[in-house]
Structure formats: C-alpha cells, structure tokens
Amino acid sequence: MDPYILLSIVNMKLRDSFESFEGMCEEYDLEADLLKKRLKIIGYNYNPGNNQFIAVD
Questions:
Q1: What is the pLDDT of residue 57?
Q2: Which residues pair with 54 in a beta bridge?
Q3: What is the rounded CA–CA span in Å between residue 46 and residue 56?
Q4: How far apart are the C-alpha atoms of 42 and 16, rounded to whole Å?
Q5: HSE toward the beta carbon, residue 49, CA cutoff 13 A
Q6: Which of 8, 11, 44, 13 is nearest to 27 (CA)?
Q7: Among the four residues 14, 15, 22, 37, which has the most C-beta atoms within 10 Å?
Q8: What is the pLDDT of residues 8-51, one digit of tens each?
C-alpha cells in the first residue's frame, strides 16, 4: 500500500474511531512498531497529544 494512503487511513481511523494508537492496533491486530516505522520513512511520527501522525520537522 502507498504509504501516504496508509497515513490517511490511519489518521482517519484515529480521529473517527479510536482514542489511542495502541487501541487501534489492538482492535485490528496490527504491529504498532512496524506501522510506526512505515510512516516514519515518509517523515511522520505519532503524536499522542493529538492522537495522530504528524510530519516531523
């Protein structure tokens, strides 16, 4: 999957359906570290305060 499409889907799910990244990963049986690594490659890190992946400066 294109990493930018993945970013869009993950942030939409976090915004609309989950209070935390960990909760989303548990619900969908995702490997949190692997997902974070895939999004870090395109310059995004998870921000728990905003509950979304944001661009790294």
A1: 78
A2: 45
A3: 10
A4: 23
A5: 1
A6: 13
A7: 14
A8: 999 999 999 999 999 999 999 999 999 999 999 999 999 999 99
Q: The domain containing residue 26 runs over which residues?
A: 3-55
- Closest to 3 (Cα-Cα) out of 36, 29, 49: 36
Three-state DSSP class for 27?
helix
For the chain, how many structural domains are there in total? Answer: 1
- Cβ(48)–Cβ(20) below 8 Å: yes
Q: Please state the separation of Cα 46 from the chain's center in Å.
A: 6
Q: Give me 15's structure tokens.
A: 């915004």
Residue bearing tokens 């999957």 = 1
